[in-house]
Amino acid sequence: MSSTTEVIQDGSAVRTAAAQGWSSHDTSWVLGLFATAIGAGTLFLPINAGLGGIWPLLVMTVLAFPMTYLAHRGLIRFILSSSKPGSDITEVVGEHFGATAGKLITLLYFFTILPILFLYGVGLTNTVESFVTHQLAMQALPRAPLAFVLTAMLIAIVASSEQMVVRVMGWLVYPFIFVLLGLALYLTKSWNGAVLQGGVPSAGKFSYTLWLSIPVLVFAFNHSPVISRFAVAQQERYGKQAVGKAQQIEKYAVMMMVAVVLFFVFSCVFALSPADLALAKSQNISILSYLGNKFQTPVIAWVAPAVAFVAMSKSFLGHYLGAREGLHGLISQQIGAEKVDRQAKNINRGIMAFLFLSIWGVATVNPSILDMIDSLCGPIIAAMLFIMPMYAIRKVPAMRKYANQPGNVLVTFIGAVAMSAILYKLLGL
Predict the structure, then answer these.
(1) For the chain, how many structural domains are there in total?
(2) Partner of 50 at 20 to 30 A CA spacing, among 201, 217, 237, 410?
(3) What is the residue range of the signal peptide feature (predicted)?
(4) pLDDT tens digits, one per residue of 147-185
(5) Which residues contact 256 (CB under 8 A, 6 or more apart)?
(6) Least confident interval from 163-172, 220-229, 261-270
(7) pLDDT at 18
(8) What pLDDT is recorded for position 397?
């Protein structure tokens, strides 16, 4: 690819960031960002998006690229606004907002990941339970022991060899993507017009449905956990051109993920009826597990649940590492790094025990996965990804050059909509 020029609006001036020619480094990061976003969240998006009917789904299709790209671009700019090259997100927050804010962001970061970890614990248990009862035609296993064994197995894998886990999960994501596209193509022969029969909804119902769907959309395309490392990597390679190059890589990655996910979503929605989607939600299983139960052909019945298990296992292991690091950081901030080093073994055991017991407990209780996304995952991600960078543009001198850009309004609006979902759930409206 030829040399690319990224034009960035810088207040009243326009600064041109001339990036170097495209390299394998850039390609690997496009795939890395793509792989991070395409995970278990993709498996629940068709259910929530399709339940609202075709019209909200079409609006979500229009919003998907700009909201995902602009929000992650804002976080990239925020991380690269530090006066100290190589600073991660916690260090940048501490520099711009103070040490106390740095601790709060670390806490928020931990609580961004923990609910997602709970979500995968529930989803994995339900996937195996559904596979046993439908594909194997066996009696359902007792939930508490099943959740115990699955959680223990996954945490034991992490404890045994973290580097191998990361490497293997990275390999697995690409077959997952190809299988996802293959299933979407396979489902085209089952497309029907059931989703089109609802007619045009009233303005109130349309707005209400779209509002409740936004948090799931935010979650499905979220790849913010890797943005800090991604931004620092571009800074190390491209120096002052890092912002322009990072935005370019991010743009191509988002284009890929939106195209793949939306094709999969539309294929699922057109192959199923609204009643099917409602049943999948009530059963608290992923769309792949439901497809495996509905279509009794060997390809769908056996491959779909297996792919769902791999996707959620991959995401579970990655988020477990992040949750453990976040909790370790919180403890270090409270008692000091030196004491943490002296008591490292006991602290690590305590962290593992806490995460195991909490994940097992939530997986046993079996709360609604989509409700967790609506009320916890989506809103907290929105606070970190959408609201914080926009707040920084108004308050941090190094970020003011990005003020007065039209995209800022969309990012702020989407973030506010996603965060308002938690108030809706808490107030029981």
Answers:
(1) 1
(2) 410
(3) none
(4) 999 999 988 887 776 666 656 666 776 777 888 888 899
(5) 30, 34
(6) 163-172
(7) 41
(8) 92
In the DSSP assignment, the letter for residue 7 is E
Residues 6+ apart with CB under 8 A from 189: none
Q: Are 35 and 318 in contact (CB under 8 A)?
A: no
Summary mean pLDDT of the chain = 82
Helices (H), 80-189: 89-97, 99-130, 143-160, 162-187
Residue type, 154: L
Q: Cβ distance 393 to 400 under 8 Å?
A: yes
Alpha helices (runs of H) in 197-343, residue ranges in sequence order: 203-220, 227-238, 242-271, 274-283, 287-294, 298, 304-335, 337-342
- In a 13 Å sphere around the CA of 1, the CA atoms on its Cβ side amount to 13
DSSP three-state, residue 14: strand
Q: Which domain holds residue 101?
A: 5-427
User: Which residues 6+ apart lie within 8 Å of 399 measured at CB?
Assistant: 77, 78, 81, 389, 392, 393
CB 318 within 8 A of CB 169: yes
Amino acid at 363: A
Dihedral, CA of residue 421, residue 69, residue 170 and residue 239, to nearest 10: -130
Please, are residues 63 and 264 in contact by the beta-carbon 8 Å criterion?
A: no
| Residues paired with residue 8 on neighbouring β-strands, in sequence order | 15
Which residue type, as a one-letter code, is found at position 259?
Answer: A
Q: Which helix (H) or strand (E) holds 44?
A: helix 40-51
Which pTM does this prediction carry?
0.80
Classify residue 285 as left (phi > 0), alpha (psi -120 to 50) or beta: beta
- Return the structure tokens found at 155: 């945490």
**Rounded Cα gap, residues 298 and 187, in angstroms:** 14
Closest CA to 380 of 215, 201, 204, 157: 215
Residue 178 backbone class (left: φ over 0; alpha: ψ -120 to 50; beta: rest): alpha
- Distance (Å, whole) CA 62 – CA 258: 10
β partners of residue 152: none
Query: In CATH, what number is assigned to the domain containing residue 367?
Result: 1.20.1740.10
Establish how many alpha carbons lie within 13 A of residue 378's alpha carbon, considering only the half-sphere containing its beta carbon: 34
User: How does pLDDT run across 121-156, given as a tens digit for each residue?
Assistant: 998 999 899 888 888 888 888 999 999 999 999 888
